[in-house]
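Entry for guanosine-5'-diphosphate complex. Fields follow.
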Amino acid sequence: MEHFENDEQFQGLRVNKGTSEQPTVNPYLSNFKKFKRKVYTISEYIEGIRKGDITVLGQAVTLIESSKPEHQAIAQEVIEKCLPYTGDSIRIGITGVPGAGKSTSIDAFGMHILKQNNKLAVLAIDPSSELSKGSILGDKTRMERLSVERNAFIRPSPSAGSLGGVARKTRETIILCEAAGFNRIIVETVGVGQSETAVHSMVDFFLLIQLAGTGDELQGIKRGIMEMADGIVINKADGNNIEKARLAQSHFQNALHLFPLPESGWTPKVLTYSGYYEIGIDEVWNMIDEYIDFVKKNGYFDHRRNDQSRYWMYETINERLKNDFYNNAAVQKELKICEQQVLNSQISSFAAANKALEVFQKQEK
Ligand code: GDP
């Protein structure tokens, strides 16, 4: 007998004849190679983006993020052709320290935005990726409701390169998103350094998310970040935190009075809300709408966007010059020599810099 357990005496036990072992690798997997990423032509990119095709948009953003020159060439052409279809949007920057509740809030804000028949793109600039390749904002999907919405496009921070490079890529991604019909753009960043300046340089409204603390919460924030903010919102105003949040609100309001009136002519507001319990979301969004109305009427909206365009022109030039310089083989050789000479006190830092720059200039001729 093949299986003695099947004998009558062992009632209740039945062992069936097994099937043959399945291969560990899915035999159909090789077919998937055929489905490899489709290569689009420039006009297919434009057409797909203009139709709001998320797959094409996502691939175009991947080209923007790529460091390969051939990808960059296509990306630049696509961006150029998308430009006429952009600008008709509201761009909002959101910053706050880790744990302030940015993702929870953006999920809630986003659902509010979608309810008003808008299309929303959420992009990020994560400065932690520059040095550590780490990521404070995280790659996991943090906006659970938004991430399954058809009218929302969520893209994590580009990871390679300097902060300037990462920010430029996000700036270019905004263009493609707008051409794809996304009329609300949120750019998120972590409130820990230079990245706020980068975000500020590409948005119409800059929102700072704060938490109520022990009363000295103002000390931890750099003055520059507060000065940049068009609105400050104190999150987690729920449960027995409401009173503390109100107290923080008045602290911030008082502190803001000490700053000169911003160029926009708009006095930044301080509100309390709860992203998690969705209390006060309307008020936060009404404040942003009110601001946009205000600056569109007084001309500051266009003024700021023009300033930003100029800023990005020079940023792009600076970045290209720096990359060309440091990637130049002759310069790299010269820099090694110069560095040693400086360390050995043979020449001054300035003379060394001049020598390296001269090598570059000769190469350029
Ligand atoms: P991020 O690091 O700024 O993106 O912050 P998260 O959105 O991940 O939130 C950090 C923690 O705070 C999470 O445990 C959230 O559940 C919690 N949180 C976020 N918003 C609120 C809120 O409005 N009220 C309360 N009580 N907790 C919140």
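NOTE: Residues 100 and 211 are 6 Å apart (CA to CA).
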